[in-house]
Recover the amino acids of this structure.
């Protein structure tokens, strides 16, 4: 039968597009579903609380003894460092946690609400579904890091003096450029989270229980960081997706040290490719019985 | 007869007139076979009832039809296209409700539909709002469209699920248990909806475990049992499908003559199914069939219709029977000649001295472990009682019908009358049978025609009772 007769003619033509759309509609719908969940906003609010807590604590105690996460000691001189300091705090746990929730929920959550079967018979192709789910998770990664960065900058502006920023290399850049660099760092951190998002997507195709997939993804990120701390597994370190997570300081040099940015992007791309392929292999032929 | 009609359907299949066609479709999970080689043939434009008890493989079949689960063996064609190879081309023309509704609880009913519509790459975004609203209106959810699905009742979710199937004009709509959770009013509305869809030319494939539902709205029906398709065809064909059963009580010496006369007329050997319902007929309404009878019933039905023989037929209790190939059954002597040899086509014989079913002592029946009491055939006008089956007491293990439903030519017992049974072909009138018997010189003592109801048939086919009322 020709595709025309499947699509129908006459009155159907107005209700069905002449050909398949590219999928932006479904991607936008996916984003709408993601960002209309109260859970998503709760997680973003929790992330925004990180720089606020840091800034308020430092403001109240008037500095500290210089210990703590990166850039913490510079905050009293320049509020623009609140965002960077908060990122350094959020990267090991809070960001992987939220990414694990979104990525782990991506397929398993649809299965548990029973919407997966309806999406698939709509029909959404299985590959398309995986791509859209991953893209939505990536958008969430960006939203999460931007939330930390922007909330940090805003609270820094409110509580501390703001001026030209002294970089690690000793140079000083204007406020405008420092904001640009903050954006660059947010992108760097987002890139670093994509590997984890791909792992979460893969785990999510293994089960119909979203909570299990979320927990497993978070555990994977913790295990990777623990392995990254052990000197016995030093040979493994460059292969861990968390290896470049805290190296965003390289973007605060003049000129910018792009090597870690590139290496990070390459490593994450490899993770996305491997776990994307695994997710496809698992999901493409999976019996959807939920 | 019935098998013939199934074949006809299959032939039509090659003409591309089928909305759904499967060949040898099977699904195995590990060692268990959930769907076992079914050959579905759903004609276009039909309202096709897919009937079977819970766990008979209906939903798994539907999942395979829609490409959600892969088949272990067999071919599927939906709307003339191979599935799941042509899935992307076929599914936009298919609306489905699969094993209950599935929605995002944190979105409103309308937003849920918009979401699923956005997932359909062919659906036009320009007309989305209008189509969503129309679908909601069609299932009577317009006023609740803005509410979060979390606040919906089960029935409302079910309606929303049906609305999802109606978002775009479909050629085929698959509804898995569409009236689950609906109140009687909702059930009526869904039935009306399905009829209106059929009137528009949409093929509707509706699964249910409720016979009454299927009976009221379907033109065609398939019956699943234990993963197998045990019957399929137009509902009317199923209704009339050779279920007319003739029991003739004759003087003992004439039994052979009667049997050969019936055979000459083309009366097929009776199914034990019919015999079983005959046995049950005199029982008080609402009583249970003896388990062994049920067993027999299903075996025979399976033989008659489409399915393979059910496993392990109950062993015949005593070799009353001589397995001869004659196509007519002779059984159970009725010692007291009760009925007059009237040639009336349908007689209600004189009240039998022993009004209850076959051998009361009951050691005959090997009680199969049927958990639930099988519902007795409801008091339909059809089953007219057999003449006084008052059996010989204890030692002689006589029963109404040997469970194997084997061809029985003569019963060994020579006393009294004999009962000769047969299935009446559609072409032969009951009157002609009597006339032929009398013409052949058979002393006819009683004559009964039984027509099994649809309920009987389904109980026989599936081996368990359906809810016949809702």
């Amino acid at each position: 039968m020709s595709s025309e007769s499947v699509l129908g003619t006459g009155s159907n033509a107005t209700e069905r597009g002449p050909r398949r759309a590219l999928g932006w509609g479904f991607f936008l719908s996916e984003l709408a579903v993601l960002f209309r969940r109260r859970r998503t906003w709760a997680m973003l609010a929790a992330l925004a609380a990180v720089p606020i807590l840091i800034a308020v604590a430092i403001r109240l105690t008037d500095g500290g003894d210089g210990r703590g996460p990166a850039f913490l000691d510079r905050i009293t001189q320049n509020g623009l460092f609140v965002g960077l300091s908060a990122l350094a705090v959020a990267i090991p746990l809070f960001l992987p946690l939220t990414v694990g929730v979104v990525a782990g929920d991506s397929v398993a959550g649809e299965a548990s609400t029973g919407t997966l079967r309806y999406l698939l018979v709509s029909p959404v192709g299985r590959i398309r579904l995986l791509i859209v789910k991953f893209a939505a998770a990536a958008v969430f990664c960006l939203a999460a890091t931007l939330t930390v960065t922007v909330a940090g900058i805003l609270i820094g502006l409110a509580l501390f003096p703001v001026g030209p920023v002294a970089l690690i290399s000793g140079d000083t850049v204007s406020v405008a450029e420092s904001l640009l660099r903050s954006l660059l760092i947010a992108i760097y951190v987002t890139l670093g989270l994509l590997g984890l998002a791909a792992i979460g997507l893969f785990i999510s195709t293994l089960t119909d229980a979203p909570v299990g997939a979320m927990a497993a993804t978070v555990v994977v990120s913790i295990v990777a960081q623990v392995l990254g701390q052990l000197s016995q597994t030093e040979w493994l370190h460059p292969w861990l997706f968390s290896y470049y997570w805290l190296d965003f300081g390289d973007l605060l040099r003049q000129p910018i040290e792009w090597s870690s940015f590139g290496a990070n992007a390459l490593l994450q791309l490899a993770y996305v490719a491997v776990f994307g392929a695994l997710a496809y292999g698992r999901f493409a032929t999976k019996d959807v019985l939920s | 007869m019935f098998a013939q009609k199934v074949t006809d359907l299959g032939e039509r299949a090659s003409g591309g007139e089928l909305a759904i066609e499967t060949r040898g479709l099977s699904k195995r999970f590990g060692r268990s076979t959930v769907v076992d080689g079914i050959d579905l043939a759903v004609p276009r434009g039909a309202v096709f009832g897919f009937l079977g008890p819970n766990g008979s493989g209906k939903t798994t079949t539907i999942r395979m039809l829609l490409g959600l689960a892969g088949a272990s063996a067999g071919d599927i064609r939906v709307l003339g296209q191979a599935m799941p190879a042509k899935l992307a081309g076929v599914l936009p023309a298919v609306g489905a409700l699969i094993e209950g509704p599935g929605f995002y609880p944190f979105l409103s009913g309308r937003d849920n539909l918009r979401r699923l519509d956005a997932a359909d790459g062919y659906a036009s975004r320009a007309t989305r709002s209008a189509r969503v609203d129309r679908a909601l209106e069609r299932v009577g959810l317009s006023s609740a469209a803005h509410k979060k699905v979390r606040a919906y009742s089960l029935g409302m979710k079910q309606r929303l699920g049906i609305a999802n199937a109606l978002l775009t004009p479909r050629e085929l709509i698959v509804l898995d248990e569409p009236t689950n959770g609906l109140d009687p009013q909702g059930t009526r509305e869904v039935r009306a909806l399905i009829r209106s869809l059929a009137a528009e030319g949409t093929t509707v494939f509706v699964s249910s475990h409720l016979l009454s539902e299927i009976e009221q709205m379907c033109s065609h029906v398939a019956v699943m049992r234990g993963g197998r398709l045990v019957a399929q065809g137009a509902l009317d064909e199923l209704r009339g499908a050779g279920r007319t059963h003739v029991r003739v009580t004759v003087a003992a010496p004439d039994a052979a003559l009667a049997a050969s006369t019936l055979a000459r007329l083309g009366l097929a050997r009776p199914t034990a199914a019919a015999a079983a319902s005959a046995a049950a007929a005199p029982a008080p309404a609402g009583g249970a069939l003896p388990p062994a009878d049920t067993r027999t019933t299903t075996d025979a039905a399976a033989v008659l219709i489409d399915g393979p023989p059910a496993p392990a037929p109950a062993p015949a209790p005593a070799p009353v029977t001589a397995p001869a190939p004659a196509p007519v059954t002779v059984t159970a002597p009725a010692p007291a000649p009760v009925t007059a040899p009237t040639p009336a086509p349908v007689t209600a014989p004189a009240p039998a001295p022993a009004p209850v079913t076959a051998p009361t002592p009951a050691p005959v029946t090997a009680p199969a472990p049927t958990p639930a009491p099988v519902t007795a055939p409801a008091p339909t006008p059809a089953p007219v009682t057999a003449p006084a089956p008052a059996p010989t007491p204890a030692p002689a293990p006589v029963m109404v019908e040997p469970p194997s439903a084997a061809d029985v030519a003569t019963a060994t017992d020579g006393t009294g009358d004999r009962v000769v049974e047969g299935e009446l072909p559609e072409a032969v009138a009951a009157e002609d049978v009597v006339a032929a018997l009398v013409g052949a010189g058979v002393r006819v003592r009683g004559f009964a025609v039984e027509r099994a109801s649809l309920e009987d048939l389904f109980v026989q086919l599936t081996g368990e009772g359906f809810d016949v009322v809702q």
Q: What stands out?
A: Chain B has 14 helices and 17 strands. Chain B has two domains: 2-239, 244-362+380-451.
